[in-house]
Predict the structure.
Amino acid sequence: MKPLIVANWKMNPTTLKGAKLLFNSIKRGVKNVKNVKVVICPPFVYLPLLGGGLALGAQNVFWENKGVFTGEISPTMLKDLGCQYVIIGHSERRRYFGEIDEVINKKIKAAISAGLNPILCVGETAEEREKGNTGKALKRQLVSALKNVSSSRLRVSGLVIAYEPIWAIGSGKPCSPDEAMGAGIFLRKCLAGLYGRGVSEKISIIYGGSVSAKNAASYITQACLQGLLVGGASLEPKEFVKIVKAAVGLVDGCS
Ligand code: PGA
């Protein structure tokens, strides 16, 4: 599997000019990079304005395709703009916008129906980790997000699971590759329990949380994961390009 490196710009940059500058510097920097899939997830408003050359994803989506839902953006709208991916269930959406597991499940199903590749974020809080409840939290989030998603749908969905320990996001305290590996193995076991080994092995599991150029490669080589979800560092083009380059030629050794 080609490593997947996803930039989550969150609510940045604050101007279209800034967004275009960032996009174009990343595009220039990764122009000759082969065998790494780079996906940029900017705020919605910039999606149709950034030009081509790199795959695009959204940071959120609604679960209906159209209708009386003031302020929402639908899966078909994103697909129509050429989006390939959509981040669903990021911990900031869960925390600040009250997204509960059932909402995330609806969004996953809607994204799959529209032909978008969902990037499902799961991760434990510091408290869950301290109490030894990481597995419980991850399983709950995974199982509820995939409720009523059949094996045949999942197989064609291009689903990506992003393991993002909440305590590691934006904290400058990344998860160790060993711990990330443990979470990856656990998530794949859960997927195998739900869908069988064959299907589970085709799903990419990526890591997110204080990723930098320094630690990027370790999540792929040591933790045996298939890519990265990068927040803060994706706003610094030089650093992000280094992260992408760190993934060149790396394949996970776990499957
Ligand atoms: P971070 O964010 O890289 O700034 O920790 C990751 C994320 O929230 O996806």
Remarks:
- The chain has one domain: 4-246.
- The pocket of 2-phosphoglycolic acid is lined by residues 8, 164, 169-170, 208-211, 229-233 (CB under 6 Å).
- The beta strands are 4-8, 37-41, 55-58, 85-88, 117-122, 160-163, 204-208, 227-230.
